[in-house]
Write a structure and sequence with these properties.
The chain has 338 residues and is mainly beta. The protein is built from 4 helices and 26 strands. The strands form 6 sheets. Strands 8-9-10-11-15 form a 5-stranded mixed sheet, with no helix packed on it. The chain has a 5-stranded mixed sheet with strand order 12-13-14-16-20, with no helix packed on it. A 4-stranded antiparallel sheet has the order 3-2-1-26, with no helix packed on it. Strand 8 and strand 9 form a beta hairpin. It is globular.
Length: 338
Amino acid sequence: MKKRMFLATLLSSVVLFFSCSIDDDIGGGGGAPIPVNSVVYAASNSSNKIAVYQLFPEDIVGGLNDISSNNNQGVYYNKEDDELVVNSKEQQAINVFSNVKNTTSGTSLNLALSSASVLQNPRDIAVKDQYYIVSDSELNSEEGKLLIFERDENGFQLRNTVSLNYEVWGLEMRGSDLYHTIPNTSDVAVFRDFISTYTTDTTAAPDKRISLERMENIRGISSDSGVFVFTDVGDVDRSKDGAIQSVSRFIEKFNAVEDGGEMAFQSNQIRVSGEFTKLGNPLDVVYDASIDGIFVAENSRDGGAILFFQGIEIGGEIAPLYTFAFEGASSLTFAKLR
């Protein structure tokens, strides 16, 4: 009841929901389905489950769907075509599932398309037009690569591979620029005009790379309305030292730091960490400015969970408003539907 009252009054038309069909979501007899405002999909790197959180007016309902791979990292939802795109570590491919919104809880998503099995250790996926960019690496490697796939009516074609002398994790396209995080560091880097500049197999260095003060081991990245949010897993062997860090007007501040320099924490960044946050090894994040909401894929603490924070502007040890158990939570995608 407390969750229902909170969503009705504070989030207006929000509900968090695990993948049920719309007709099954609202109890009671008849009437038109209540429209969905937004949706968050979550993948797991320890199971074949996909969790879905849909934003409705008055209630929270839940469920899970199955997919064909048991180890997945990197997920993207295409609302125009109602497709869920998922990197499969197990199958070493990009999988596309169709008719997602109409799939009922407890059933399997329909596999519509797969790429060739050319991935090795995928971390994230970014999509712009017909291009699908995957951050990847060989297992136990300190070097990474960015795979650029082009999709047409015949499926996926691997256009080219950009090799890097560092590992790469989170991806975020802003216009034609590709921002990315560098795990086991505090660093964020950018490739300008990435898709049009790097059209053949090559080894490259980013146009700019900086550090974020107080970050220890960066992973996830998300942005909306000029705000960037990052996750910090800290020591991967500890399950209670994770954090999220938010930077408003990030691109402006990023541009003001010299290449190889550090963005000062004071007056620039907000950090949420501590026991009450339930952050241990947060691998991914999505941020939506319209509800000032942050969803985090917490991979290890208590087996894994999706955490929802709101209004973190004061920083510090802020508890999540909602915690949804989800084993091996590895990645998230967010889409506004209205």
